[in-house]
Amino acid sequence: MSSERGRIRITGFDADAVERREPLSDWTENRAGETEGRWERGWREFRQNRSAMLGLYVVAAMALLAVFARPITVAGVTVQPFALAPYRPDAILYVQGLDVSAYEAPSLAHPFGTDGSARDVFSRVLYGGRFSLSIGFIVVFVTAAIGLVYGAVAGYYGGWVDEVMMRVLDLIFAFPGLLLALIIVAVLGKGYWELVLAFTAIGWAGYARLIRGEILKVKENEYVTAAKALGARDRRVIFRHVVPNAVAPLIVQASLSIGTVVIGVAALGFLGLGLPPGSAEWGTMLDQTRETIVQGPGGTIPWWVTVFPGGAIFLFVMSMNLIGDGINDALDAQEGEDVARGGEV
Amino acid sequence: MSLRRFVAIRVASTIPILFGVSVFTFALVHLTPGDPIDQLVALNPQISAAEEAAIRARYGLDGPVWQQYLTWMSNLLRGDFGTVIAVDQPVGPYIMARLPETVALGLFGWAIALLIAIPTGIYAAVNKDTLGDDLSRVFALSGISLPNFWLGLMLILVFALWLDLWPVLAPDKPLLSPAMLWYLILPGVTIGTASSATLMRVMRSSMAEELNKEYVTAARAKGLPERTVVLKHVLRNSLISVTTIAAFLTAGIFAGAVVVEQVFAWPGLGRAFVQAIIGREVDLIMAITLFTGVTIILANLLADIVYAVLDPRIRYD
């Protein structure tokens, strides 16, 4: 009897009864259920958003068209043999013995007409997606990653670390984005990776500021204090407990800023500071046609060389913005609407 | 903290930022070989090495980068912004000659953005979830997704070439002449569209939020006509957030000017900047970068002040 002293006796509780009842109830012992559920619920809501799904289909279609525009060879091996675009994007058609002249209006043979060098605009627009889309996605992925780490460190540690890191951000924000990108491209020269670097350099700061703000909110929660009290290291607290709860606005911001990057890349191309002249990049194509529009080639105005490449940029950015809006609604990340949508830099 | 003290501290805190911007830009531009003198020599092969060195010395382009920076800085503090080497003209007057063009373009863009954004935003908020609201949403989304250079080209194509309502190139007239102001409409629309789309959505959401507040119910219960409720009570309160966003959009207007001036061959600062980049005119790049930096920082400061003045509840401390 004395050995029973101090023991807590629970009466009216039969563990076996709970075991037996369990299959009948909805309750399961899935600990990850809550976090998983959040993304699954988000996806379900996203799928019900018709305009967002339309955007997703358009972006997917444009990406597929760009990939299958021309065959891709890696180190001499053809990994992608299809060619949806009838001509090479840089092929000057009359040089190849075809009866085609410069500035031919759209026809069945050339649905988007030909440009000033007698190249097939349809092939160039399809192929051009490769530049804009890949730069857009690479830049957004890299900038979001950098901004995430930077903002998390600044917001979590606070104090003078935060102070110094935020002053660096002020420096970036004192430039209008496009100006800094222009300077960087002028320094590095034209080219694909130069553009990626330029837009990475201006893009990460926005994510850093966003994440820092979220971290400041999240780190006040008791579970962070609890994790620290249990002796978790800073890195673990940041990336296991703080960041996952601050990441939804980052995803929304990332999806919305792909459009910004694509427009920025095209703008640099249009200014003649993007890819080398003659590249089938959408903005560069518009640069080559500006003179023709303004001066007029005499006779009919070749509207097709302006309408189609620019229309491709517009279609892509619009679709990305529809997707971003959809993600925003689905994750319910931002209360205020439309303040930071992707667009002009 | 009083407002005056807040402004003083904010202005003082911009000095290190501007210093950082100047060091950063200077280093960046000097990272690569190649300056206007190289281009000059390439065009005039008869220039001897000694003459080249003399020209370089004249523009302070010899010596290590840090020394060049110090020279540049001490000149700047004395009000000397350096020289545009290609035309051998001081940077100060060079910028001042182009500034009015860009300011006019920017103001026109602003005016057009506000003229579209405020009425449409009010309409969309008052008629929330109707067809008109949906249409305004489509307009806003397209406005933001339109690349401004393409919009400019399309406007030239449709309104100047097909409908012949505008001249294709800017007429060579003084800035404030009627012909010039008429021509400004196309670039103004181009530069203002993206901002108007953003502003309109902010206007709509802030107005919709205000319309749900209790003072609106009170005003309606008092028997005020809906017009007075919306235009007098609600509009004033919703304009607060619009004003701040509007100031923040200044940076966007300037970045837009770089591209739009290129489309319309408009002789402003943005076009000068692109030419400076291509010609590696270090002094000009530095001056324009610092100038825009100051403008952006001042615009943000102005946004904070306007916010405090419009909303007496905001206190800075």
Commentary on this structure:
The complex is a heterodimer of chains A (345) and B (317). Chain A is mainly alpha-helical and 345 residues long. Chain A has a single domain, classed as MetI-like (MetI-like fold, Orthogonal Bundle). Helices cover 62% and strands 2% of the residues of chain A. In chain A, strand 1 and strand 2 form a beta hairpin. The longest helix of chain A is centred in the middle third of the chain and has 37 residues. With 317 residues, chain B is an all-alpha fold. Chain B folds into two domains: 90 residues, no CATH class; 217 residues, MetI-like fold, CATH 1.10.3720. Helices cover 77% and strands 1% of the residues of chain B. Chain B is built from 14 helices and two strands, in the order H-H-H-H-E-E-H-H-H-H-H-H-H-H-H-H. Chain B has a two-stranded antiparallel sheet. Chain B starts with a helix and ends in a 7-residue tail after the last helix. Chains A and B meet through helix 5, helix 6, helix 10, helix 11 and helix 12 of A and helix 1, helix 6, helix 7, helix 9 and helix 12 of B.
Summarize the structure.
The complex is a heterodimer of chains A (345) and B (317). Chain A is mostly helical and 345 residues long.
List the helices and strands and how they pair.
The complex is a heterodimer of chains A (345) and B (317).
Chain A: H1 15-21, H2 33-48, H3 50-67, E1 72-74, E2 77-80, H4 121-157, H5 159-173, H6 177-188, H7 192-218, H8 222-229, H9 234-242, H10 248-270, H11 282-295, H12 304-331
Antiparallel strand pairs in A: 1-2
Helix pairs in contact in A: 2-12, 3-4, 3-12, 4-5, 4-7, 4-10, 4-12, 5-7, 6-7, 7-10, 8-9, 10-11, 10-12, 11-12
Chain B: H1 3-30, H2 36-43, H3 49-58, H4 65-77, E1 83-84, E2 89-90, H5 91-126, H6 131-145, H7 148-162, H8 178-183, H9 185-211, H10 214-221, H11 226-248, H12 250-263, H13 269-279, H14 282-310
Antiparallel strand pairs in B: 1-2
Helix pairs in contact in B: 1-14, 5-6, 5-9, 5-12, 6-9, 7-9, 7-12, 9-11, 9-12, 11-14, 12-13, 13-14
Domain ABC transmembrane type-1 (chain A): 129-324
GO cellular component, one term (chain A): plasma membrane
InterPro entries (chain A): BP-dependent_transpt_permease (IPR050366), MetI-like (IPR000515), MetI-like_sf (IPR035906), OppC_N (IPR025966)
